[in-house]
Design goal:
By secondary structure, the chain is mainly α. The chain has helices at residues 3-16, 21-28, 32-39, 47-57, 61-64, 72-85, 89-106. The longest helix has 18 residues, at 89-106. Keywords: DNA-binding.
Length: 107
């Protein structure tokens, strides 16, 4: 498991919902220092704390652990596909054109 990447994702999710480290620490019964240690990737959270963090931040554990999960790429593709459906037909076409160009560039 990439502890640093996990910590960065937790921090990004925390900031997205407008929480401070103090808020998160209180919500999951951690010390602020321990939240800092987790976010810096020094030490990963235990499983039950990871689930608590994900619930408080309203993200899936799969999103937080995406480097460690074989199915994460397919899950992300499915999520993006669902978001694509919310766009207008013109928006969908533009996104598909960009994706096609990116895929061609990386092949």
């Amino acid at each position: 498991m990439d502890q640093v990447a996990l910590g960065k994702r937790i921090k990004a999710a925390r900031e997205r919902v407008g929480m401070t480290q103090e808020d998160l620490a209180a919500a999951v019964d951690y010390s602020v220092d321990h939240v800092s240690v987790v976010e810096r990737g020094v030490k990963p959270p235990k499983l039950e704390k990871l689930v608590a963090i994900a619930n408080v931040l309203n993200v899936g554990t799969d999103e937080l652990l995406q480097d460690s999960l074989n199915a994460a790429t397919m899950l992300r593709a499915t999520e993006l596909s669902e978001r694509l459906k919310t766009l207008s037909p013109d928006g969908q076409r533009k996104v598909m054109n960009v994706l096609e160009a990116l895929i061609t560039e990386f092949q």
